[in-house]
Design goal:
Blueprint lengths: L15 E7 L12 H4 L12 E13 L2 E7 L4 E9 L2 E7 L4 H6 L5 E5 L16 E2 L8 E3 L13 E5 L7 E3 L6 E3 L8 H5 L3 E7 L3 E4 L13 E10 L8 E9 L5 E11 L5 E5 L9 E11 L2 E2 L6 E2 L2 E5 L7
Antiparallel strand pairs: 1-2, 1-15, 2-5, 3-4, 5-18, 6-14, 7-14, 8-13, 9-12, 9-14, 10-11, 12-13, 15-16, 16-18, 16-21, 17-18, 19-20
Length: about 325
């Protein structure tokens, strides 16, 4: 009996799935995606340290690299081409508002709004004091000293990171949340900019059970935990978010197109898109979407030393002719 091979048509897909992972800003080391080992991963369970951003819409890639001819002879004729510039942009609209999607859709620091003490004023610096995380903590459980749990409630958001002690440069556990150019006086500053946040699922006598694992894993000794009421970003500033990105299009025949951008920096300020609900919903409800626009930065591929902005991988459908 002949094998059931078929000629695959162009992929048919509904939406694009987005995943982001941190870049080590000190060494400019991105998170690498190996399609040979990870290309078939479960879309709901991405490999560590990729973070699932859910489905996105309006996904657009723009290759902006320019070539130039090398002329020789009289009259001049084209001898060959050279790549004059290597540029690329990518944009999308996030369908959910989370801390990370907000950060990805702004061009500067993205900050946690720490719970303020009563009567702290409007300066934004009088936060409720942080509590020291105890040994025995994990990525999903924050151990606290006796009585410490009483200051937290299920459903609250917590930030877990160290005290600020006058250091300059990139700050934040695992993910650089800001670049400090001169010493500051706010002991809570790192927890204001950290990405190491999670939602409290349950409060116990010994600590906090988290609804999702902390992005940076089990807390180190000496870090502290503080409650957060929301998130804020600011138009302007000199800090640029930088992330590795992976966009996945899965076709109806189980084929996949994967776009891996090792380094993306946001190239636009905070922007929202209003998407009306319904074709004739004039003046009615609309979904507020976050708009992200990014510039691709190059890496040097260790395979052959070439400078690369993006890797596009196609994994054919099972039994499809190639």
């Amino acid at each position: 009996m002949a094998a059931n091979w078929f000629a695959a048509p162009a992929p048919i897909a509904r939406k694009v799935r987005a995943y982001f992972a941190p870049v080590d800003r000190l060494t400019q080391t991105p998170t690498i995606f190996d399609a040979a080992e990870q290309g078939a991963f479960d879309l709901d369970t991405p490999p560590t340290p990729w973070i699932d951003m859910g489905w996105v819409q309006g996904f657009v890639r723009k290759p902006l690299s320019k070539t130039a001819p090398v002329l020789t002879g009289i009259p001049a004729a084209v001898l060959e081409q050279i790549r004059e510039t290597a540029l690329a942009e990518v944009s999308c609209e996030f369908l959910a508002w989370t801390k990370l999607t907000m950060a990805l859709a702004t061009g500067s620091q993205h900050m946690n709004v720490l719970t303020a003490q009563s009567g702290a004023g409007l300066a934004g610096t009088g936060a409720i004091p942080a509590l020291t995380v105890q040994s025995g903590s994990t990525a999903t459980f924050i151990a606290l000293a006796s009585g410490g749990s009483s200051t937290f409630a299920a459903g609250s958001i917590v930030a877990v990171d160290g005290d600020y002690s006058g250091q300059t440069g990139f700050v934040g556990i695992g993910v650089a949340g800001a670049y400090v150019r001169k010493p500051l006086s706010d002991v809570d500053y790192i927890r204001r900019v950290t990405f190491n946040v999670s939602l409290v699922k349950e409060v116990t006598s010994t600590g906090l059970e988290l609804a999702a694992a902390l992005p940076c894993g089990a807390p180190n000794a000496g870090v502290k935990v503080q409650t957060v009421v929301g998130f804020v970003d600011r138009e302007g500033g000199s800090f640029y978010q930088e992330w590795s990105a992976l966009f996945v299009i899965e076709g109806s025949q189980r084929e996949r197109i994967l776009f891996h951008y090792p380094r993306l920096q946001n190239m636009a300020g905070a922007e929202e898109m209003m998407s009306p609900l319904g074709a004739t919903n004039e003046g009615g409800q609309a979904r507020v979407l976050l708009k992200g626009k990014f510039m691709a930065l190059p890496i040097t591929d260790p395979l052959d030393g070439e400078r690369v902005l993006c890797y596009r991988t196609f994994v054919p459908a099972p039994k499809a002719l190639v």
